[in-house]
């Protein structure tokens, strides 16, 4: 029985490569900042993930979990500031909404940065934690 070469090497689709080639054809790669300049030695230090993080940070990219952390902090502070002016039922609804965001945050952030849920009892402490 002879093996078919196509079954051993299925076709490979390079989606990102295709996108970059199309972008270059339309002039999207012209006049990039630092084009033609050598990379600094620090870009070659560390592993691939650290390298990606450094480049992303230099480009102004913030991970989703970091944006979510800022949103949660802001919402907790607003709830704490308005605690005396609102009913307990309204505050509990807002806390429930924030806790849903905290679950999403905890799923996407690095494990050492995960945080607990907010309640009426720990609201003041959580404004300091976040």
Automatic annotation (TrEMBL):
This is DnaJ homologue subfamily C member 28 conserved domain-containing protein. PANTHER family: DNAJ HOMOLOG SUBFAMILY C MEMBER 28 (PTHR39158:SF1), OS08G0560600 PROTEIN (PTHR39158). It comes from the Bacteria. It comes from Filibacter tadaridae. InterPro entries: DnaJ_C_subfamily_28 (IPR052573), DnaJ_homolog_subfam-C_membr-28 (IPR018961). The lineage of its organism: Bacteria, Bacillati, Bacillota, Bacilli, Bacillales. Residues 20-77 form the DnaJ homologue subfamily C member 28 conserved domain.
